[in-house]
Amino acid sequence: MAYQSESALENKLIEQLVSKGYQWVPEVKSEATMIANFRTVMEKRNSANIGEEPLTDKEFERLMTQINGKSIFDSAKILRDKVLLKRDSGKNLYLELFNTKEWCKNTFQVTNQITLEGKYTNRYDVTILINGLPLVQVELKRSGVDMTEAFNQIMRYRKHTFTGLFRYIQVFVISNSQETRYFSNSDGEILKSHMFYWSDVENNRINVLSEFAESFMEKCHLAKMIARYMVINETDKLLMVMRPYQVYAVEALVRQALETKNNGYIWHTTG
Across the chain, where does the E strand assignment appear? Predict the structure, then answer.
């Protein structure tokens, strides 16, 4: 296995994502620039509803008050719903943050080394922005480093600086190049047992980061995972992301229901 530094892994992943259609936004390096980028993308995507009068600064401030700094669970619900904003004129405006039905039509961007200051100053490796919101965060470690280090790094970030719009993170990805896993965000404790491998439909694990990015992080697939294959658990107030075999089972069931006239069933043992 060839040695790769964290920076080399980071650059290679970004290049791969850009080649797959992600927009590279290196100017997004702070909370302020992320919010400015979010405003630009959100207004463009909602231009038909906003009309000829762009949002005023006060209107945007009210929007940020409504959506920013909420709990992870509440942010996940806001993400999937229409946001009602009352304009200065008194008219109601409904804004879409994430297209859950036509997930390929969302706006996909990637940046790196966003720096936030809290109790500590943290710089995040690779951040995937969907419609300007940081929905997927990738933490990389050099080749040979145990995955636990990347997991623990995410836990420190959650404690210290994953605030504001970073509460919209849905999925974490961690990798040391040869081993890659994903897991959902949560307000409470995240267990290491909830880190999942991705696999193909034949249940062959996809461990290598470049292969994982080619499959799991393909734009439409990643948005579909967030739109369709995450569970908003109202009982326990947490997010849950499906394991690969659960995803393939649901897709097989949907195909059976929509494309054939046959009955079908899913045999499962994991509850």
Answer: 23-24, 82-86, 92-96, 108-117, 121-130, 133-140, 171-175, 180-184, 198-199, 205-206, 230-233, 238-241
